[in-house]
From TrEMBL, chains A, B, C, D:
Record's protein name: Glutaminase
Species classification: Bacteria, Pseudomonadati, Pseudomonadota, Alphaproteobacteria, Rhodobacterales
Gene3D superfamilies listed in its UniProt record: DD-peptidase/beta-lactamase superfamily (3.40.710.10)
Catalyzed reactions per annotation: L-glutamine + H2O = L-glutamate + NH4(+)
Binding-site positions, substrate: S69, N119, E165, N172, Y196, Y244, V262
Gene Ontology biological process terms, A to Z: glutamate biosynthetic process; L-glutamine catabolic process
Family stated for the protein in its record: Belongs to the glutaminase family.
Entry keywords, A to Z: Acetylation, Hydrolase
Enzyme Commission (EC) number: 3.5.1.2
Length: 309, 309, 309, 309
């Protein structure tokens, strides 16, 4: 199966886009951030980057959407580059078994979030990068990282979404203050949360996102941003924790490391084979893109791509 | 790295065995089952099976030990063969974020265990296989499966361990009765728990266990016991849930699907490359073999084997 | 207000019975025990005993019903008489903040139930009394205690209810086995749970129950079964824990120590003034008699009886 | 016992003060607020007010201490006066079964705190009073209430303690933000928490506190601040929830409604008989004054005062 030609893959993508266009059970866009709630669930786009340097696409793959929690993958890469394994003093590496915004395990674990992909953990990661810097510097670094990774300068933060997010950040602020109470926050909560809201408001297209993920797939054309050993570890975290309390289900159905965002995007990695981005704004009960996950499952089945054999 | 010769691999195994022999911080054998508590933490063995049919070993790789929860992988394979996806009506596929014997999430989830590898889930799996049969039939089927998988008739249940386990099964009985209260048990708790205690008391050597795992690695010499699609799914569950609340850590450090048992064994799968078994009875705080996990990490680093790139 | 004459009190009881007869929102009888589920929610009875020795009644106050968890008050009195403060090694004295049959806090507290009035705690109490005896002896002692307390020999166990209860005791068995796993059970779970199911199946009338509660109210005519200091402590436990996770609400609305049962009965104590029993089988969401609690609230308001001023 | 003369009571108080002076196991002052941590655990004072108008005292009953959470009783009284039963839309009336500052049940209950005496609940109460006002107005009203209740104008807020509290309010801020996320906060978290920190920093002597509690005991000399029905309800809440997850224990040992503060004070109410205040800064594991609780137990035993008979 590994010898699927780009043409054969394009045909698979076209099939997926066609199938998804028929679907009426699309889930609902995230409602807790007004700006996201206004996006129509009718959108669907998919893009993938191959070892040969090709980028294939289908559907609305060049429409921008809010990457939201997918940004956590990139801030994690930056934080590991900056702090190395010291980061793990502040955040764990275990699936949480709870919702993305749960505060329960934070109390149980004395202010140490379970992993860097639940909200509390991602806030701790952002807080770690922010130490000694200004929010604008951190956001500039994130954009620089994304632009280099994607080979595309046209990646920006949507200020309106960031502001909407900031205005509805009570729960994330609660998580930050709770960590502060346990000595696990280095900056004022308002500063860290402000930065976090902006990082989530980065907007990208499927094409840009798939290209930005190439370094995680180890594709030859990808810029070398992170060592192979660290790439494997980021992929491991995506696989075990990338879809909140549906991570096990995604691993079972799709078999690839992936990270979702409440904007409806998913980035998935087929190591050595492809970096894949999909977008459909309707979410399931766990806050993951319903059609996005199905498209990934369809693609994995059609290509035989799986890290599990 | 994929072209490591058997001789090079043997040298790695020898290095690992030598390094582990030096270690004094070995953890403690499981104490809650007296028969297991009597085993010395000094043991260490490792074996691996390769695509070419070779089996390499080092240390005490031909000494029998109690496979305990590693049996859950094989009963899961049997249950999926028997019930197919209907099994997932009775057990989930998510990491639990809690200890192997926790009853908390069972209450939260109305008697549906989080996954088939925590105790509650494995009891549900055994209960599913047992329906309409006698315990002896189920245990005979498990032994038949293991013998075919390993290509070795000399695999048995240690009756003394089974009895010791049965005499200390209060917590597992509580899990079973709790599921019964939610209509998620088909047999009398005593029957299911009796079967479960015997399944955990299967004893195997590292060589036997590595050979029994070949079908999960998709090695050419392996008997075709399960379809490739299902193999991938079992591997996915091992990766996300195979080490209880240290599953994320094992994925991060080792990068291979694995399943541990409180007897000190670990089975790990490098798809297409190797089936690996290791044994050292001393456990860490999460109930996984301390040196076993370190040996797996050492091996993964030395070989470059990882599902994550 | 304290000088209310028996005639005035009778008039209050009559008003309450008349008001309750009009009510259509009666809640549903307990459904998890078939025998209890068959009782009509139309029943209502109330009885109270006064310092002068009078027993007043209204409605179906001489119809027998299953006292269920109200039995926990009497087994607690027996256990404290037998073990004294040693009992508190095995069960706590704090409100649980959780449902009557929750197992969660049991895991958190290492097998020590929060208080003697949630199921786990009452099972521990029964187990403590049972040690060294046979179930029949314990049940005989309980009946003897109730008969002396009520001054009425005609108090029995409903064998059909006991059997129904035993057949649906999975969850209580889970609690018992869980305690056994933590060394907090002295008898085989089946023996303790069998005894517990029979104790819950005692049937009494409102008149009998109000009379049986006189010793807790310190009424002059009551047999001296328990020291005044211990009576106060039992009343304290009833007030803080007697209605599961609605105990605070009952204290707020009624202001008297009370204990409810899923058979629809409630026993309440106005120290020095009255022992009160009410019965209506329809339950609210917390498993307490809906009309029973309202009748108690009505009575407390009309009489001014409250332990709080 | 009810006829104990003031002289007999004075003798009991003297005995208690003498006994407490001998004690070396005094617990540790609250450490999480630096200003409180500096207070010596050697202090002990007690005062009680009687129906005849007398105030008896022993030990350091005229030394000021930080009343901390005891302030919650008075803000509750103010809030009930302002909002009536509408307050119960925003906060529950059940014991929480968890620590005073736990956030877990808040997640479980969708942002509704379990009761007005855990931190989250008290913050909701303060937030309710604050709506439409400025912090200074609310604090002025609280001081006015306390001064009228105690008949003493010399009651103030310790600004240094308030500032120390404000600087360490991360956890309380987390609680407030979490409630805000569920729509259960009317003011900016910083405003509500600032007010809350000042309310906790009121300082009073045992004599002042005992006098301020007279209206809850229904003493003839007390100003009529709250209706008798509401007084009973506040007492009920103190009894079931006043000592966090040691409320059941206090009810069992002392048998009187009471409210503790981490400054080491306890206010207890013997309805119709006395209002009692005690102070000793050393705390037990639940955050309640160790010697304070023992002194209350001693007093209850010596006087026979108990709401339970």
């Amino acid at each position: 199966m590994e010898s699927l030609s780009p043409a054969a893959l394009q045909s698979i993508l076209d099939d997926i886009a066609a199938a998804m266009a028929q679907r009426s059970d699309r889930g609902q866009p995230a409602s807790y951030i007004p700006e996201l709630g206004r996006v129509s669930p009718q959108h669907f786009g998919i893009a993938l980057c191959l070892p040969g340097g090709q980028t294939l696409l289908a559907g609305e793959a060049t429409t921008r959407f809010s990457i939201q929690s997918i940004s956590k993958v990139f801030t994690l890469a930056i934080a590991l580059g900056r702090l190395g394994d010291d980061l793990w003093q502040r955040v764990g590496r275990e699936p949480s078994g709870a919702a993305f915004n749960s505060i329960v395990s934070l109390e149980h674990d004395q202010g140490i979030p379970r992993n860097p992909f639940i909200n509390a953990g991602a806030i701790a990661v952002t807080d770690a990068i922010l130490e000694g810097l200004q929010p604008r510097d951190v956001l500039a670094e994130l954009l620089r990282f994304l632009r280099v990774a994607a080979g595309d300068e046209d990646i920006h933060i949507d200020k309106t979404v960031a502001a909407s997010e900031r205005a509805h950040a009570h729960r994330n602020t609660a998580l930050a203050e709770f960590m502060a109470a346990h000595g696990n926050l280095r900056n004022p909560a308002a500063l860290t949360i402000g930065t976090y809201c902006h990082q989530c408001a980065v907007e990208m297209t499927c094409v840009q996102l798939a290209r930005a993920g190439r370094f995680l797939a180890g594709l030859p054309a990808a810029p070398r941003l992170v060592s192979p050993a660290r790439v494997r570890r980021i992929n491991a975290l995506m696989l075990t924790c990338g879809h909140y309390d549906a991570s096990g289900d995604f691993a079972y159905r799709v078999g690839l490391p992936g990270k979702s965002g409440v904007g409806g995007g998913i980035l998935a990695i087929a190591p050595g084979r492809a970096s894949i981005a999909v977008w459909s704004p309707g979410l399931d009960a766990q806050g993951n893109s319903r059609l996005g996950a199905e498209a990934m499952e369809h693609l994995a089945r059609a290509t035989g791509w799986s890290v599990f054999g």
